[in-house]
Amino acid sequence: MSLPFLSAVSALRAAGEPSRLRLLALLARAELTVGELCEIVGQSQPRVSRHLKVLSSAGLLNRFREEHWVYYRVPTTGESSEVARQLLSLMAEDDPVLQRDRVRMDAVIAERARRASNQLRPDVDLPNRIAIETLVVREFVDKPVGVLLDIGTGSGYLLELLAPRATRAIGIDISTDALRLARTNVHGAGLSHCELQQGNMYDLPFAEATFDTVTLDRLLAAADRPLVALAEIARTLKAEGRLILIEDFDALHEAVHANPINVLREWLVRSGFACTRIHPIDTETAHLIVAVGERVASAVAAA
User: Contacts for 72-80 with beta carbons within 8 Å, 24 or more apart?
Assistant: First the structure.
């Protein structure tokens, strides 16, 4: 790809300094805060902040806030993303400075996850996880994942599973602690094209018809407004896009006092989906349901 002359000069000038090039290489792999970057590269906060400002002004970085934290990352799509990756391709992967930075980054992210993990709900246990993954992966044998949104991403295990098959992958969660843990797991698995954002399933911060696939893991049983959440998902899905919905059978039964399978079918249809499949999963520790809904092109979502 080619850039306008002044844009090319700005990008080259921004990246043409050793510390800024190191920061760019780190932020192409993970989303990091100023404090974490200071610890990794061994420089003061004012100096790192100045470097980040230059890179951001040149369009090589995105900046976003989650409560008390401000994160930076190389954009995952678009012209700026491609420019950053072309610049980084000029450097050897086995460069000792870059390797040392990556080792320090892994340690920083692991410590972030350790602090966050004690405040999160338990993740899916192994028998349930294996059963869920088998069914979910089967859905993409004949149809690609495309652009993926994982709602309530938690530890990021569904992102880890599906992101390698996705052209772009975003995980959202209302909990910043969950997002810090998900960043550890997802970026630690080398999935640098994944983005993690704070978000609310009742008001998704995305345009209409953005995603090909949406996953929703065990959120509706405890939701105050499940139809509003499903309507929002329908809004952001492309026509014939798919929703992979996982629910706990017993928790949903307790919430609605009706047959959970019938309830899920009804909710999907009322929200603009054709319910194509429902799979009950019985393991040693839980009774789960995996439902698949396809976005109907002419759907009118009911909130």
Answer: 72/27, 72/31, 72/32, 72/33, 72/34, 72/37, 73/27, 73/30, 73/31, 73/32, 73/195, 74/24, 74/27, 74/28, 76/168, 76/192, 76/193, 76/194, 76/195, 77/168, 79/1, 79/3
Which domain CATH number covers 42? 1.10.10.10
Reference 260, options 270, 242, 246, 243; nearest CA is 246
Tell me the β-bridge partners of 295: 273
Pick the last residue of a domain from 92, 117, 142. 117
Q: Which of 79, 94, 117 is the C-terminal boundary of a domain?
A: 117
> Helices 5-15 & 79-88, crossing angle to 10 degrees?
50
Summarised one tens digit per residue, pLDDT across range 50-87 is: 999 999 998 899 998 887 788 999 988 888 888 888 88
Nearest in space to 116 (alpha carbons), one of 180, 182, 31, 34: 180
Backbone phi, then psi, for 49, in 5-degree steps? -60, -40
| 137 and 236 part of one domain | yes
pLDDT tens digits for 19-29? 999 999 999 98
Separation of CA 94 from chain center: 28
Q: What is the CB neighbour count within 10 angstroms for residue 88?
A: 17
Among candidate residues 155, 201, 160, 146, the one with its CA nearest the CA of residue 180: 155
Question: How far apart (Å, rounded) are the C-alpha atoms in residues 178 and 245?
Answer: 19
57 phi/psi in degrees, rounded to 5: -65, -30
From residue 133, alpha-carbon distances to 77, 161, 174 in Å are 27, 7, 23
- pTM (predicted TM-score): 0.78
**What sign does the CA torsion over 188, 247, 145, 87 have?**
negative
> What is the residue-wise DSSP string for 56-68?
HHTTS-EEEEETT
